[in-house]
Amino acid sequence: MYKILVVDDEAYIRMLMEDTLESLEHPQIEILSAENGQEALEIIQAQCPQIVFLDVMMPRMNGFTVCQTVKRDWQMTDVYICMVSAKSQGYDVQHGVDVGADKYLVKPFKLDEMLDLVRNVLNLEIPSKRG
Questions:
Q1: What are 55's strand-pairing partners?
Q2: Please, is 84 exposed, middle or buried when counting C-beta atoms within 10 Å of its C-beta (0-12, 13-18, 19+)?
Q3: Which residues, at least 6 apart from 55, have a Cβ–Cβ distance to it below 8 Å?
Q4: Whether this model's pTM surpasses 0.90
Q5: Domain residue spans of the chain
Q6: Is the domain 2-121 a CATH 1.50.10.10 member?
C-alpha cells in the first residue's frame, strides 16, 4: 500500500489535491490529510507515507520546520517531500531545498504536475484521466 499525505491549512486546497489524487484510481494508494504542521508530523511518524505534499505557511508549525524535522532530525530520507507554496521567491525555494525538500511546487500549479510526480516517485504505470 502506498500512502500519500496532503498537508494544507486551507480545506478547499486540501480537498482539490485529494480529489486530484483520487482520480488516479489506483487500489494500492491511500490518501491521508492534515490541516497543520503538528498534525502532519504525527501522521508521518505513525503512517510513514511515501509522498508528502506539504504547504509552507500553516498554523502550529510551518512546512519548512516539518520538512526539516522529517528529513534531518528523524532522518526519514525515504519520505519524498514536495513543498507546495505561493512563496515563489528564489530564497523560499532555496530554503525548501536546504531543509530537505525533494521538490518545490509554486501555487498555482497544474494538477497534472502533481499526478506526474506521484507516477514518477512511486514508479506507477497509471494512465492520465484528467483533461
A1: 84
A2: buried
A3: 7, 8, 9, 10, 13, 63, 83, 84, 85
A4: yes
A5: 2-121
A6: no
